[in-house]
Amino acid sequence: MPLNTSNTCIAGFETNMAPFTKVVFNCTGLASRTLAGVEDSKCYPTRGQVVLVKAPRIQTNMMRHGVDYETYVIPRPGSKGNVILGGDGATYASEVESILARTSALSPEMREQEPEVLAAFAGLRPSREGGARVEREEVVVSGQRRLLVHNYGAGGTGFQAGFGMALDSVALVEDVLCGLGSSTLQARL
Ligand SMILES: Cc1cc2nc3c(=O)[nH]c(=O)nc-3n(C[C@H](O)[C@H](O)[C@H](O)COP(=O)(O)OP(=O)(O)OC[C@H]3O[C@@H](n4cnc5c(N)ncnc54)[C@H](O)[C@@H]3O)c2cc1C
User: What is the distance in A from the centroid of ligand 1 to the CA of 166?
Assistant: First the structure.
């Protein structure tokens, strides 16, 4: 089924629901802390740094949990060989060397050939006290019943858990989605 998308910044869910909207998926990450209609004070940012490399031969997702750091090698599906290497909470140039050294020690595929470093970047992960929220909520907008499916708070596991979270989110409203004709299924954001 073709999916139409558009980029629109919304102030809140209830004010942006069209009259025919039945289900809205809330995948706004950290913005769920302030977004009107959600305002989840459990959301908070966690800083981290990763390295993006081109290494098509790496097929294996590997992770090591250290005492105060994480090391991981995550091939990105459908990216023509891009791999995320991580990671840490710091944002220093020396951290790139540390990540490359730790991931090489972890992954035999990394050691086969030096990867081409495409970028190193720091960011804020969308964390949440108590873990991710994947939950169906019923809201009444202009007297009509609508469904809001929350899917946020993946923190530092979104690359790994995001696909499963998406499947779980859809499953929560399968009863409603199955009742919609394909012509009425359209992304609004
Ligand atoms: C430094 C770093 C390290 C990481 N390490 C790991 C790791 O070790 N393992 C792992 O699995 N994952 C890792 N991740 C991935 C991380 O978990 C993902 O970045 C995260 O899961 C993305 O979550 P999200 O899609 O919920 O949020 P986002 O990617 O932030 O998506 C939220 C979306 O909502 C949109 N939005 C927000 N507000 C509005 C609004 N008002 N109107 C319209 N749109 C809005 C935003 O534009 C954005 O597109 C790391 C990320 C970073 C940055």
Answer: 13
